[in-house]
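Run log // design_07
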């Protein structure tokens, strides 16, 4: 198990997960969000190849309506 920060909350996850697997493990159902690892946004096409590492800071951002 490794420890990461997800939106400011410490979580323990299995080692070796990619972004897609992390999203499933965290049970995110909302569509259209963005993921940043250590302040760098990850393209959706790279979710399957981007591995989460111990100590990473993950930000999952949903769009906000307004003007």
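design_07 sequence
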């Amino acid at each position: 198990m490794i420890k990461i920060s997800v939106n400011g909350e410490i979580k323990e996850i299995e080692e070796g997960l990619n972004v897609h697997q992390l999203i499933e493990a965290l049970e995110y159902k909302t569509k259209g969000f963005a993921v940043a690892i250590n302040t760098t946004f990850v393209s959706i096409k790279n979710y399957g190849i981007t591995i989460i590492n111990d100590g990473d800071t993950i930000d999952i951002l949903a769009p906000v309506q307004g003007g």
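The CA atoms of residues 21 and 58 lie 13 Å apart.
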